[in-house]
Amino acid sequence: MIQTASKNYEIENTEMRQMYANTILELAQKNPNVIALEADLMSAISTSKIAKQIPNQLINCGIMEANMMGVAAGLSLTGKIPYVHTFGQFATRRAFDQLFVSGAYAKTNIKILGSDAGVTAEHNGGTHMTFEDLGLVRLIPNTIVYEVSDSSMLGYLLRKIEKEHGIHYIRTIRKNAVKIYNDGETFETGKGKVLREGGDVTIIASGIMVVESLKAADQLKKQGIEATVIDMFSIKPIDRELIVKYAEKTKAVVTAENHNVIGGLGSAVAEVLSEHCPTKMKRIGVREKFGQVGKVDYLKGVYQLTEKDIAESALSLI
Amino acid sequence: MGINLQKVERFRDEIRLMTLKELHHLGFGHYGGSLSIVEALAVLYGEVMKVDPKNPNWEERDYFILSKGHGGPGLYATLALKGYFPVDVLYTLNQNGTTLPSHPDRNLTPGVDMTTGSLGQGISAAVGVALSHKLSNKDNFTYCIVGDGELNEGECWEAFQFAAHHKLNHLFVLVDDNKKQLDGPTKDIIDPLDFEEKFNAFGFYTMKVDGRSLEQIYDAIQRGKEQSNKPVAIILDTIKAQGVPYLEEKADNHHIRPSYEDEKAILAVINELENILGKVVS
User: Fold this and answer.
1) Which residues of chain A neighbour B122 with C-beta distances below 8 Å?
2) Model's pTM, two decimal places?
3) How far apart are CA B116 and CA B97, in angstroms?
């Protein structure tokens, strides 16, 4: 178990987009092969500063995500290291075949940031709200899929994947996360982070649902229930050993994701458990619904993504 | 310095012969679109491109991407004859476990620069390669053959806008304008209107040539290299199944399982080319 950075769920000072832009700028300044690609969302993710400082390493592809993915593949053929950003639904739903064929099937090297995870797309609404991206990318052979929960993690992973060949998809929110990790924390692909230990139930979460799960564990504790909370930021590969270990220990597992319950974290955990350690489980996530406009707190209520939903699911398993 | 016509004519005939032999050996395949690019491949690999078959990943090479990936058999014949792999490997086309699948795979076949087959995608990758060289101030050229039917795909036109915006003058797009796509004449399915006008409007330095003329293709490439501000489009006026007159006349010649009559026509051309060349492979 690691110590979380803030006991009171403090909001970070650094927005996720600032962390992305600052980290890519730093990487690009050190390595001329690092190229950031945007599809007319530079301003939304703060990479304009890269364009100002090293214009040759920020290519604004315009509103053409399919071509952007192909251009990234072409850049990688010649040794460049493309970091592609767009909203998650454009990176996956819109450019899926490009990501599949020119990316993974062709074994090229593309790092993708899909922003505005799930309900955090807020006022952009149903067209822009993706509850499918993790599932889509997870389906493609040999991809690496992360959902980050705070800016320290995002910065760490962006640096880590620079030297790793392949298709890496990082799902993130754009604005401020709750601070979970101390600076200097390290993250390993395929290894979850145990943020809280308890013997009665295991809650496995990713992204913004990690904090909801920690809060749910606080609620449960008041009722005498001790919950383990795991930040399963590495959706693929997933930490099978850790899932099995805590499923055996607690005999009850709840997953929590700001994503469709089909295809993402809940599915991935269910697959592990059903094959390796059949365990009672519940999945918190979006069920058979499209997105819509609204504030995050409202939308969490609509899609039943709150700490209360998580705690109730946990109780129902015990 | 002009084209060594005699040499390239022989290379063209060898490519056509081996394309026919590998497809005939398999028994079916994309005859139409493999044959219509033979002349372009002969000029590119015979006279124009800087490549080293012994070192397929040589960084200083010119890149070639066959965006219309179903022309793979034509490319494979070219690469084999060029020495990237033994010519008899061509007879493994599409056999179980082959290194030569219908559509090119850069991870399977030496000399294939990009995996293609999902139409519209190769051109985006070609644009990425050309951009990369421009960003690094390198003078490698990138050649990309797209199909006229493939240009139905919106992604192609995204890529063309991008190429023109970035002034990728070392990018050469060769359009195999064979006037047909899988389901029939392009003008009946999605009328392409005038490719020259369209490419000009999209900011390309555009030329239209007889896609059967080695000299015209060569000269167009040389002219394209003389300008420094635009990507180059060369519209190749070709015939689907070019070089096998009986198949050229066939309405449905995209993917062919030869009938008795087709078979006779194919074998006649194989025979004729072997007489001209002597057998390339025993």
Assistant:
1) 70
2) 0.96
3) 18
Identify whether the C-beta of residue A95 lies closer than 8 Å to the C-beta of residue A260: no
Partners of A256 in the β-ladder: A205, A284
B124–A80: do the CB atoms touch at under 8 Å?
A: no
Q: How far apart are CA A62 and CA B193, in angstroms?
A: 26
CB contact under 8 A, A75 and B131: yes
Q: Does B120 touch chain A (CB under 8 A)?
A: yes
Q: Which residues of B touch A106 (CB under 8 A)?
A: 105-107, 114-115, 125
Instruction: Choose the closest CB to B132 out of A64, A69, A78.
Output: A78
Q: What is the DSSP string of B203-249?
A: T-EEEEEETT-HHHHHHHHHHHHT--SS-EEEEEE--TTTT-HHHHH
Which residues, including other chains, have CB under 8 Å from residue A207's CB and lie 6 or more apart?
A117, A118, A147, A148, A149, A171, A172, A173, A233, A257, A258, A259
Render each residue's pLDDT in chain A as its tens digit; 318 residues: 777 777 789 999 999 999 999 999 999 999 999 999 999 999 999 999 999 999 999 999 999 999 999 999 999 999 999 999 999 999 999 999 999 999 999 999 999 999 999 999 999 999 999 999 999 999 999 999 999 999 999 999 999 999 999 999 999 999 999 999 999 999 999 999 999 999 999 999 999 999 999 999 999 999 999 999 999 999 999 999 999 999 999 999 999 999 999 999 999 999 999 999 999 999 999 999 999 999 999 999 999 999 999 999 999 999
Kindly report the nearest CA distance between residue A275 and chain B, in angstroms: 31
Main-chain dihedrals φ then ψ at residue A268, nearest 5 degrees? -60, -40
Are the beta carbons of A134 and A171 closer than 8 angstroms?
yes
> Is B128 close to A105, i.e. CB distance below 8 A?
no
Chain A hits for B150, CB-CB cut-off 8 Å, are: none
| Of residues B125, B154, B161, nearest to A74 (C-beta) | B125
Distance CA(A134)–CA(A266), nearest Å, equals 11
Among chain B residues, the shortest Cα distance to A81 is held by B132
Q: Is the separation of the CB atoms in B63 and B140 below 8 Å?
A: yes
What whole-number distance in Å separates Cα of residue A57 and Cα of residue A59? 6
Which A-chain residues 68-127 have CB contacts (< 8 A) with chain B? Answer: 69-80, 97-98, 101-102, 105-107
